[in-house]
Amino acid sequence: MACTVLETNYVRSIFSELQVHIMRMEKDALGEVAVPDEAYYGAQTQRAIENFAVGDECLPKEFLLSLARVKQAAAQVNAELGLLDASVVDAISEAAEEIISGTIGLDAFPLRIWQSGSGTQSNMNMNEVLANRASELLGGKRGVKSPVHPNDHVNKGQSTNDIFPTAMHVSVAMALSERLLPSLEKLQTVLDEKVAAFADIVKIGRTHLQDATPLTVGQEFSGYAAQIRQARLSLEQALPEVCQLAVGGTAVGTGINTHPAFGLKVAERLASSTGLPFVQQENLFAGLAAHDAIVRLSGTLRSLAGALFKIANDIRWLGSGPRSGLGELQLPANEPGSSIMPGKVNPTQCEMLTMICCRVFGNDAAIAFAGTQGQFELNVYKPLMAHAILQSITLLADGICSFADKCLQDLTVHEEQVRAHLDRSLMLVTALNPHIGYDSAAALALQAWREGKTLREVALASGLLTEDQFDTWVQPADMTKPKGIGV
User: Fold this and answer.
1) Active-site residue among 208, 291, 320, 421?
2) Is 208 noted as a catalytic residue in this protein?
3) Which of 177, 198, 241, 336 could be joined to 217 by an S-S link, Cβ 3.0–4.6 Å?
């Protein structure tokens, strides 16, 4: 007597727990392949598992979910164009929705990024999973390619060469709009709050790591806020180019074996379902052979990482101490800083963020080189580029949120230390330039430094100015804005 579906699933679960695989035999163009019976993937994925057992980096979740979205849109467009039966399309769409919702887990997509440079193995992995699940939904079984076929139905009107970069662009655009840009908005808000909170705290500036003229802590933080604002604007400006999709180009950009309206309609459906301005790329040959939009975006991420590195490093240095460093900022104590030194507080969020920036720099170098590998009609570094760009976006988004919440939010100024540094600085002498001249002012500063005296002491002893004149002319707060003689 035949087992019910419930009984079959129970047997599968028991064998799975025992780490024993029941195998099913499948056929592809090269012959028979043994595939684990519980797997939603099929013969081509199994061959790829065996042929590309390299490293442990899989394609990111964001990419796989976007690939499922693209396949769902493609099936729906094929139905709209009268090219696929409605029942098949409904089953493919439902299977895709199960992947997007997590009902079908990522274990159905075990392939590493180190595979064919077009991503063929991952495209077929998705085709097989969708076909097998859609077949089940229509009363069929896994592994028999009926009633839903991975190539003839799920991949209809498509090639890996146009679908993989389409999914790459969809996943990158969604990660930008849903994760990185909101993270930057949060960071910018926190920085703007600090600009206002620290607006009246005058401190000594530093150039070349040496004392310089005063500014306010708020002015210093306004520079950080401006860097983030510009980085955010640059990413927003990059988004429309990323939203141009290669779908419809099929094998080499000519659109062979697809309906002329297919790519345009798939882009429209993706735009409708995500709320992002997806369109079909104007030149599909460029869409397959070059990935300049990804290269340019990576460069923008590199610039953002450079800004974040500067900000985090400044805060790390300004918070150094507490007794033997600059000690002008007080960083929140989130966790014990040392396994041997009790009571130590380290700038851990700053270090976390700067390490992320280093990874982004490395990813950008890989993406930049990969972008040069578009020989003739196809770039063959697509999986590497997809992995690197999505990793950069994810790390930056997570790191920025953590830095804003666990470092900047509760960051305070050690005003007593700031004032002590300001009072000891010899560069306050700059305020005397308009009154006694550069050379005389320089002589006073050097004398104070050599003799270990304050600037005020040597200035008054010099006879070049009176006590009232010194106190009137050397006002640190006045030095934080443009002012000349007589102004």
Assistant:
1) 208
2) yes
3) 198
